[in-house]
Amino acid sequence: MGLKTFIEGWPVYRQLTGTDPLGRGAAAQSARSATLTARTETADSMARSVCPYCAVGCGQRVFVKDGQVTQIEGDPDSPISRGRLCPKGSASKNLVTSPLRETTVRYRRPYATEWEDLDLETAMDMIADRVIAARDETWEDTDDQGRVLNRTLGFASLGGATLDNEENYVIKKLFTALGALQIENQARI
Amino acid sequence: MAEAHPVGFQWVMEAKGRGAKVFHVDPRFTRTSALADTYLPIRAGSDIALLGGIVRYILENELDFREYVLAYTNAATIVSDEFVDTEDLDGLFSGYDPRTHTYNERSWQYVGQEETTGYRAADRERDTAAGLRHESHGIPVGGQVRRDETLQHPRCVYQILKRHYSRYTPEMVERVCGIPHEKFLELARAWTENSGRERTGVLIYSVGWTQHTVGVQYIRTGAIIQLLLGNMGRPGGGVLALRGHASIQGSTDIPTLFNLLPGYLPMPNCHNHATFTDWVDSIRHPGQKGFWANARAFGASLLKAYWGDAATPENDFCYDYLPRMTGDHGTYQTVLNMIDGKVKGYFLLGQNPAVGSAHGKAQRLGMANLDWLVVRDLFMIESATFWKNSPEVETGEIVPEECRTEVFFIPAASHVEKEGTFTQTQRLLQWREKALDPPGDARSELWFFYHLGRIIRQKLAASDKPRDRAVRDLKWDYPTHGDLAEPSAEAVLKEINGYEVATGRPLSAFTEAKDDGSTAIGCWIYTGVYADGVNQAARRKSRHEQDWVAAEWGWAWPANRRILYNRASADPEGRPWSERKQYVWWDADKGEWTGYDVPDFEKKKPPTYRPPEGATGVQGLAGDDAFIMQGDGKGWLYVPSGLQDGPMPTHYEPAESPMRNPLYGQQANPTRKVYDNPINSVNPSPPQPHSDVFPYVFTVSRLTEHHTAGGMSRTVPRLAELQPEMFVEVSPELAGELGLAHLGWAHLISGRAAIEARVLVTDRLTPLRLDGRVIHQVWLPYHFGREGIVTGDSVNDLFGITLDPNVLIQESKVGTCDIRPGRRPTGPALLELVDDYRRRAEMTGGRPPIVTTDASEREVG
Ligand code: SF4
């Protein structure tokens, strides 16, 4: 390494002579970081999304490469958030890629002390049977004065408020058609 | 706000940078306080006393924005001479029935309208949280009212308000809230000085206001102030609810709530909604002013969206398929029913009541007594594993080998693995694009419910039971795509928006809704989100390319309007109140309303329009009736109808309080919802004996680094690392009194449970000196539970279940407890500790005394 290169490699020199007198940008960059590329540049695709935590509704850009989420950033175009995310929004890549995420159906038999596996299709079929049975066992056509009730109080639901509008819509529609009333949401709590 | 809605708080800082003064009122000094100009510590549960003090300050000093108040509020309206105020009844209003603990509203009406309220079963309305349906529109009152424009009539709303708040003096505020009166006056001055023609002030709240037995009345008091100061419907004004979850607003608009159908249409009840016409008339109230008069079209269009071809005008659009309510079917009643063995199955959809709901033990014992439970979540949460490792397994109250609940855990897709809309806190819908497929068996809720419905319909296809017709006739034909057969969220959004049945053309506005079956609309207030066949919620025009209202980013209901009631941003003649605050105004040359936002008024109705005699509905609204969803077109300082607990907010103590109410003999909200169930006893409060067994006030809230019950944060390594442990914040004075060591342990005991936490001794909490005594408050985060990377006891275990009577939200922002140094006992010894407290406090279950004054007997007798 020549003396000139050595001196130019020295951040203080670059800070004093270059365009970055405060030493917060180019002057402070190491040789290693100069060779790095941002994950956002090499991503295969980017989806425009919204933070799933609080109701501020910060815009997110979700970057995907090789079928994996590689980065989630604030959307600078958003008039709500102007590109910012708080600690939770910033951790949402960590949320969707968390090693603790469950990705298979788990089943606990009555009186069991452990989980077992179950395939999704069987689980769906079992749940459908249980809904139909609970409904049949608890169905109320009318009250004791003969007024229409047309309902079941045999099963209930409590939903979180990270459900999409479209999801809430089909949940309410299906449950109402089944005559189920006890559908509740975090919005009550 | 800086803690729980950090990125929203940037706008407060922006305003501060431009000269706004920021006040923060909170029991605990937080990150918000650190950035505010003035911080006011307050006793949890006393906000109505503080706000009532501001109302008094405005009225006594005549600081209201008089032109606005006269034109746009009901200040001049004259109230029935049957009305008797809390001033004369020791904290009760006229009409109280001590047997049912409810009010008859007759005497609260505007004069001459006493008869029009008709029959109303207040206890049933409380049970069904009937007030909630007013979220999108006003409460019925007749359109024609008697007014005194001089505001001098002793029974005009202005004078009634003045008298009602006369005892909320700065000294009283200090006695009730613990806020020194100089600090109070500083707030009152700043608020009033910053309101008027040239300036507006904004009020921001969150669940610190809603989770009380008087939660609705907290917000009402805020609304009174903002109306008196002319801060509603104007830029930089308003009462802003900061909602806590990505689409909690959407979950109310398109409700998964027992008492509502989409767009705030009420779920029918068996008593007075026997026919389609009964139901519709109960919503539209013939004779009333305003837009709600079209309810028949909204109701018919919803049923058409549900039952498609089967729904015809001849069969009242299958109205008879709708289930009927008979009372309280809310989440807390349902949990108590589970404990009593009346409920067989339960779905939990991204929700963790074992940690997040009040009275954790009741939640878990309820789940342990089901036939089956379906949990859909990203992570293994406490509500899925209550049979394995809950506190009740430790104490022996739940024995896995004896617990019969069958549990299905079905993994859920995350927000990036599905597409759809969230409605954020400003009623703004934003579409999320899907980034990738969910892993393994994980699926969206849309997938789960569409396919569950499909399978159930298949199984019932050949059924001839009458009850199955509603399922078989259901319009359930959403197109699916991809390997997973994911239903199209856009197709659902289009149905929500509504379409013309014959052509499938998406509707552009809810004014196109028809009552003859020719339109189908899933949620009428969302009509327009798919106008012209374009997903308007997906609009992402950069903020750099549009003005500050940013009308082309997402889509806000209704009609993409960003500020509701914005007609009030102009004066009665339609001119902006000031150049600085101009927003929407009347363009006389063009003969229409115009401005930066979509005007919240009929576009062509001039300010001078006066309705013909007897006109109702939209026609009945005058050109200066800015509050177009209200039955009289006015913003309500006084609420003649529709609230369970009175026409004006009144300070009551929380259901659990160490203090006697300094304002009235009536201690707590006399209409609060209580449950008679042995599991749900309430800690005693004055005038009951033994309130000293639980001498400390505790309150709970969020940390920036965690989210609600922790299911989306204790499971995320980065966030878990930032806030790794359950703790309790105590003042140095209290720590000294109790012998608590910083970073040591303490345990807190209520009549329901005992929990432990690490001690953080900090002057973020201040002992309050009020009414001749010292009240100590402690604060805890409510995010912790047994699962995830970081664990701890759940503070919601300490709370009992007592609810606001209007909306059935629980009081979980304030309770009483005892605090001891060291860790709590474990196993059966833990139960013994709690039992010992219950014995000492003589808590035998059942309901506490509701009426604590004899004034009602005076009136009734
Ligand atoms: S990034 Fe933070 S402030 Fe923004 S929506 Fe998410 S949780 Fe809320």
Q: Can you characterise this structure?
A:
The complex is a heterodimer of chains A (189) and B (861). Chain A is α+β, with helices and mostly antiparallel strands. Chain A has three domains: 3-34, no CATH class; 39-96, N-terminal domain of TfIIb (Single Sheet); 106-188, no CATH class. Chain A is built from eight helices and nine strands. Chain A has helices at 3-8, 11-17, 31-34, 39-42, 87-90, 92-96, 120-138, 165-178; strands at residues 45-50, 59-65, 68-74, 106-108, 116-117, 139-142, 148-152, 155-159, 183-185. In chain A, the strands form four sheets. A three-stranded antiparallel β-sheet of chain A has the order 1-2-3. The longest helix of chain A has 19 residues, at 120-138. Chain B folds into four domains: 1-38, no CATH class; 42-91 and 101-243 and 562-651, 3-Layer(aba) Sandwich (Dimethylsulfoxide Reductase, domain 2); 331-418 and 438-467, Rossmann fold; 673-840, Barwin-like endoglucanases. Chain B is 24% helix and 13% strand. A six-stranded mixed β-sheet of chain B has the order 23-25-24-30-22-28. Chain B is globular and about 75 Å long. The mean pLDDT of chain B is 95. Bound molecules: iron/sulfur cluster. Iron/sulfur cluster sits between chains A (51, 53-54, 56-58, 81, 85-86, 88-89) and B (5-7). Chain A: Its cofactor is [4Fe-4S] cluster.
Main attributes of the structure:
heterodimer, A: 189 residues, alpha+beta, N-terminal domain of TfIIb, 3 domains, three-stranded antiparallel β-sheet, two-stranded antiparallel ribbon, 8 helices, B: 861 residues, alpha/beta, Dimethylsulfoxide Reductase, domain 2, Rossmann fold, six-stranded mixed β-sheet, three-stranded parallel β-sheet, 25 helices, 30 strands, binds iron/sulfur cluster
